[in-house]
Amino acid sequence: MSPSPEPARVVAVVVAYNRAELLAEVLASLAAQRTPLTRVVVVDNASTDGSAEVARAAGELVDLVSLSRNTGGAGGFAAGMAVALADHEPDWLWLMDDDTVPTEGALAELLAAVEGTDAVVAGSRVVWHDGSEHPMNTPRQKPFVSRDERIAAARHGGIAIRSTSFVSMLVRADVVREIGLPIADYFIWNDDFEYSTRALRGRRGIHVPASVVVHKTKVLGSTDADPGPRFYYEVRNKLWMFRRSSSLSTGEKVLYGASSVRRWMRAIARSHERHVLRDGWKRGYRDGTRTRPRPNAMALAGLGRASDAVQRVEPS
Fold first, then answer.
1. CATH number, residue 200
2. Which of 23, 145, 171, 178 has a Cα-to-Cα distance from 199 of 20 to 30 A?
3. 80-113 per-position pLDDT tens digit
4. Assigned domain for 37 exists
């Protein structure tokens, strides 16, 4: 009888910033997964509420990476993924924020969906506190998907995807080594859109409804919800993505670009602070067209162990 295959080595990467109580819940849910994790890398983005202490108290499963400055979600994921690859030899990375609480079988269902397939990315069904679908984390279905890919995804009750969010994204470690890390200079907003489409360009991904996580945002809303001053990052990062990134084809840039303009107009029209969004749009347009994101080694310099790991994963 042939020996049983070794279980996949999965390292979770959790980016934390000033949500200590939620972080404790997230770490407890990760420790309780039906399929055990190899490690949990927690990146503390210079929190001031004791989040680092919560991570330290969570036991040996957790590898805490404390940053001396807030690098945003994008920088946090880049740093955490680099440490996971450099120090823990994963087969898969499982990415989430510190307000993402996986159900007990979330990881098991993701792994079951990709086992024996050529899928390199899998995403969970994301719900809010009350169990309703969370519109902030809806994956984009893959357009013009082939019949065999559609059938393969359907066998696992899923759909073929072109993008997914960092609210429970499973990505194959060898693909991360090939394509690099998320772009730290995005800071917040569209970092997961750029990264997941980069990982999935020419590759297969699947949305797995049987894998469920609870996204404990304060309100139930989509990306059309009034974003306030953060609208700057939405505009700048989308323009950086469409102009600088190779994650989308030319046709996709036209398609998603038109969709973005419609969402921007809708967001401004619905806002109670239209002057704030107009200002964010002007500054975002200026910086998105006149600047470009820095290399991660530069954006994440001076952060000790995290900087060293980024240099190892993305040598210049």
1. 3.90.550.10
2. 23
3. 999 999 999 999 999 999 999 999 999 999 999 9
4. yes
